[in-house]
Request: fold
Amino acid sequence: MAKLKSLDDLLVHELQDIYDAEKQITKALPKMAKAASNPELQAAFEEHLEQTEGQIERLEQVFKLLGLPAKGKKCDGMAGLIEEGQKMIAEDAEPSVKDAALIAAAKKVEHYEIASYGCVCTYAEMLGYEQVHDLLGQNLDEEETTDEKLSALAESVINVEAEEADDTEEEEASR
Ligand SMILES: [Fe+2]
Ligand SMILES: [Fe+2]
Reply:
C-alpha cells in the first residue's frame, strides 16, 4: 500500500473502508431481517437496507467529486462484526432473546459506521470539501437515527419480552 502522506490520503483510505463496509452490510441486513421475529424489527432492518443502498450512492458521488474511482478496500472490522452477527443468527435461542441479540449486533455495526462517518466528515470539513462533507453528513445522520431507533425498539418492547421469555417457559413447564 502506498504511504499515507496527508489528511487527503487518510480521507480516501477511510472512504474506501466504509464503502466496502456498506457493501458488506447490504448482504447482511436481509439475513438479519429474516432472522428477526418481531415485525417492527424486521421492518427496521428492511428500511435500513434501503437507506444503506442510498448511502452507497452518496459515497459514489463523493468519490466522483474527489475525482477518484469508487473503490472499496476490504473492511476487516465490519467483516468481524458481521461474522459475529451470523453466529448469533445460527444460535438456538428464544425468539425474543434472539431479537434482543440481533439489536445488539446491529448496534455494534451502527457504532462502527458512526465512528467512520464522524471521522471522514471532520476530515472533509477541515479540507474544505463542502459538498463531500454534506453528503457524508447525511449518511452520518441516518446511522445515528437508526441507532436511536434500535435502542427505542429494544427498550420499549424487545428487551422486555426477552426478559419475560424465561418466565413463559417456566409457566409452560409447570402446567
Ligand atoms: Fe450505512
Ligand atoms: Fe447503518
